[in-house]
DNA sequence: CTGAAAGCGCTAACAC
DNA sequence: GTGTTAGCGCTTTCAG
């Protein structure tokens, strides 16, 4: 790899001049400039970003923490973040945390040592204490981590409420809820939204709420038990689509017809919901948009350390598909 | 952030000594060592990896190119690569290329400027010329790019053959194939495997092969047309699972029963195939394993520049699920 | 066993 | 307009 010195030598100028044309910084005679540019292309010279980073203390890298990229909610988020990141000439680092605080701390340290410029975090385990020593801008995405961090989330409670009300409106009389892992902030909000609607119904039982941990297999399992214990249930609101599909699988394995015997609504709006038969009704998040927005806000923070904390909430939207049906 | 100088000052030694204890390099008196370690922890000092990289010319970063992480085949691959990468203290960079050669070249240059240590590439567009100037180790994954690159792939042709034979064995008499994008090496191999089995059948028609571009919506569309033109088709081998699920969706929308009227087999073995009803029979790849192996081989190349090119092929395995059924 | 100093490649004062 | 030079933070000869 050619260095700036090689270019300077070939163009018969000093390295400072080369640096000037490289960064279009300060005055440089058009003729010299041309000579330098020729040398650059002759040598196929590319500036060394590591050296630049060392000088500037910034690396032009942004990292995203997700629990597990294999969970189908995250690829779209990751894609959005990468796109924005890339548009702004940052390099995109992906970290799978498994929601394991040990791994998260290890990543946090490693990234800081690499001078990453900012981090976007989806986590249920990180809290204020873990990040107070970190002097890199951090944005919370999908779930809130700490009151003093900028965040991009969706209207979880309102959306959950709307989903549950929808089930009621189409005629469901016993509505159960498969919730996510207890420690995630969005699990709590979605559960609240559900309870807002059903807690005063005389049929409501606390055993209508079971945890599926945002996980397909777990959701299948708990739904089978739920439906065996409570055959009267005719509507299920799953806190995410992966579990919604699990609920469908469980119902079908029990010989129930969806939506005739059981209506199902999910949350998230991932592509998976379109592939099943019947396809899954859901409260769709603008997943790509929230990922992209988080990246934009992060970049604002990077460019302006004094920027005030921002909290943005995107609304979710009902998408009626085939897993729900008006009953008479 | 504290620097090595601060540590040196506090421990009353030179930076060289600090460096020595940092890297357990050369002799250093146990007492001094302890003093240095105390200073390190007192200052909560972490070495600056950028400075290290500049000196060493290596960045401890590995990149993975995928066409699009939103395609459900790639998250598992990415996860595997990230896990191995992480175990070896590398940072994982993810690049979505959209199989766009322009983007790929841009990434290649940007990564080289950042001194990435190695790149794993899934691509249908990159070829020998594009990478001959790159002096960073590169491994091809899933698809072969160039004869002189190490690669990790699966037995595409054999697997396709087995899938098609399986359909024949269970009694399908008219077997069609939904293939991938023409330029991908694995599309070609899977198509060949299919043809190996059917080309001499007297019922075989070239219009039994249609391209679904490895894409769900496209597969739905072309399958509908195929099934309308050729209602006699009673078995379909889709070149990947995403298309397999699309085929199922198409068949169901046409009122066909799967597997009674139409048996479907996919390729890949992604989790999606388990969620549908009926679940999808498939030729499963050891996706995680090939991703992990590619990362391991890459690291071998990084550690030994003279390492000979390796080409590893993993075998695929039939997983019978509900979308295929023996017919009488 | 430890320190001084050169240098990785680049940028940004500061001179001229 | 252009060159000289001092670092950015670290590692590694080379002395001692």
TrEMBL record, chains A, B:
<dbReference type="InterPro" id="IPR000843">
    <property type="entry name" value="HTH_LacI"/>
</dbReference>
<keyword id="KW-0238">DNA-binding</keyword>
<dbReference type="Pfam" id="PF13377">
    <property type="entry name" value="Peripla_BP_3"/>
</dbReference>
<dbReference type="Pfam" id="PF00356">
    <property type="entry name" value="LacI"/>
</dbReference>
<dbReference type="InterPro" id="IPR046335">
    <property type="entry name" value="LacI/GalR-like_sensor"/>
</dbReference>
<keyword id="KW-0804">Transcription</keyword>
<dbReference type="GO" id="GO:0003700">
    <property type="term" value="F:DNA-binding transcription factor activity"/>
</dbReference>
<protein>
    <submittedName>
        <fullName>LacI family transcriptional regulator</fullName>
    </submittedName>
</protein>
<keyword id="KW-0678">Repressor</keyword>
<dbReference type="InterPro" id="IPR010982">
    <property type="entry name" value="Lambda_DNA-bd_dom_sf"/>
</dbReference>
<feature type="domain" description="HTH lacI-type">
    <location>
        <begin position="2"/>
        <end position="56"/>
    </location>
</feature>
<dbReference type="InterPro" id="IPR028082">
    <property type="entry name" value="Peripla_BP_I"/>
</dbReference>
<dbReference type="GO" id="GO:0000976">
    <property type="term" value="F:transcription cis-regulatory region binding"/>
</dbReference>
<keyword id="KW-0805">Transcription regulation</keyword>
């Amino acid at each position: 790899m050619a260095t700036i010195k090689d270019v300077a030598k070939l163009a018969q100028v000093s390295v400072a001049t080369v640096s000037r044309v490289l960064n279009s910084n300060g005055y440089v005679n058009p003729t010299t400039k041309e000579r330098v540019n020729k040398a650059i292309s002759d040598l196929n010279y590319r500036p060394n970003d590591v050296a630049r980073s060392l000088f500037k203390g910034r690396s032009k890298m942004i990292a995203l923490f997700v629990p597990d990229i294999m969970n189908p909610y995250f690829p779209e988020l990751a894609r959005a973040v990468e796109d924005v990141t890339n548009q702004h000439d940052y390099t995109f680092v992906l970290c799978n945390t498994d929601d394991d605080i040990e791994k998260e701390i290890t990543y946090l340290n490693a990234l800081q040592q690499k001078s990453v410029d900012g981090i976007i975090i989806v986590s249920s385990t990180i809290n204020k204490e873990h990040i107070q020593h970190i002097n890199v801008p951090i944005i919370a995405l999908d779930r809130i981590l700490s009151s003093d961090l900028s965040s991009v989330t969706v209207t979880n409670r309102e959306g959950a409420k709307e989903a549950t009300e929808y089930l009621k409106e189409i005629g469901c009389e016993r509505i159960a809820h498969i919730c996510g892992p207890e420690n995630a902030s969005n699990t709590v909000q979605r559960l609240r939204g559900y309870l807002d609607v059903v807690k005063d119904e005389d049929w409501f039982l606390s055993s209508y709420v079971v945890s599926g941990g945002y996980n397909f297999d777990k959701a299948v399992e708990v739904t089978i038990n739920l439906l065996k214990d409570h055959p009267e249930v005719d509507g299920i609101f799953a806190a995410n689509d992966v579990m919604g599909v699990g609920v469908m699988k469980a119902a079908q394995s029990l010989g129930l017809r969806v939506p005739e015997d059981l209506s199902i609504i999910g949350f998230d709006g991932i592509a998976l919901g379109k592939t099943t038969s019947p396809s899954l009704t859901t409260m769709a998040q603008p997943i790509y948009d929230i990922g992209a927005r988080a990246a934009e806000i992060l970049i604002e923070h990077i460019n302006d350390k004094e920027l005030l904390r921002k909290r943005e909430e995107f609304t979710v939207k009902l998408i009626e598909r085939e897993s729900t049906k008006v009953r008479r």
